[in-house]
Amino acid sequence: MIDFTSALIQQMALHRVGNKHREESNFISESLADLDEDMEDVLIRYFLKPFTQATENFHFVHSVDLSYNEIFGLSSDVFQNSENLLEASKKITQHLFEQSNHPHIKAGDVFVVYFKDLFYQEHTREAIGIFKSENKTSFLKMLSNESNLALTRDSGISLSKLDKACLIIDEKKEDGYRVLSLDNNNYDAAYWKENFLGVDFIQDNNYNTKQYVEMVKGFAEEVIADQATRKDQIDFLNVSVNYLENQETVNVENFKDDIFADPVQKNAFTEYQRHYENTNHVEIADQFDLAPDILQKQKRKIKDSIKLDTNIQIKLDFNNPDSSQQFIEQGYDAEKGMNYYKVYFNREVG
User: Fold this and answer.
1) I need a surface site. Which of 87, 237, 269, 346 has the fewest CB within 10 A?
2) How many domains does the chain have?
3) 209 shares a domain with 112
4) What is the pLDDT of residues 56-81, one digit of tens each?
């Protein structure tokens, strides 16, 4: 989605934000940060590499009018004139402070960065990054004098993971720009995306694919689980994912017709979709182009094993939806008073 190999940091402001609930104060820098070439290379990778795996696109929204979204307005000012970055970054930090009304929200260092030459959606774009580092990492530091070496413990920002971040790309301003967001410390789900940024999902193919697979997974866990065994849940998911993998365009009605032979279960799926949309405040499109990368990512999250209370685990092949139906039998042994699985095979292969 993005390529940062040619990206440059044009300007960067660094502040510290406190927790309003705990009456902590902010520290606001009065000048932009100075960066040498080596530091710029390190920071570009730290800031931008995590976004190469981002699959969900957002845009700024507001219930009244987009112009009332504070981060959208400040971003617009900076895109119009990058010299506005320092003053905008102060207001961004204060806005972040005003949202920290929960006792669990941590103080942290705030970086506001203006990037040039970021490659996004086959075009070179400018972008604004807002990054909050909350957790410090301990490390050992070597000290020396004329005759000895000594160790001391220190702490600082880890370069291995961003805590909270967003990347605002100068693309489609009239639709609230294009925004990528990361939040690796979900102690308050509304704090970063909703209260601070004021963003919502863009209902593109990535979004539709993810929501549909999540909905199918929910149906297996919440509906099929009440009616059948764990194997039946996995079989349903296996068949469903295999069906989706062979579609370029997903039509919801065709999916139901092809997957469900039982009209009762088909109706139950339709009812569950309404429940899923209402509960999660989402809308699933009637038809959408499948995003294969998103499907594979969601597929890896699906559990494909049966854990038994006899300390035995059966792992099913999620690449072959027919294998469990052909080679595994379920039953009940009245003499032992126990359920069983019977597995057929020709030879052991590993």
Assistant:
1) 346
2) 2
3) no
4) 899 999 999 999 999 999 999 999 99
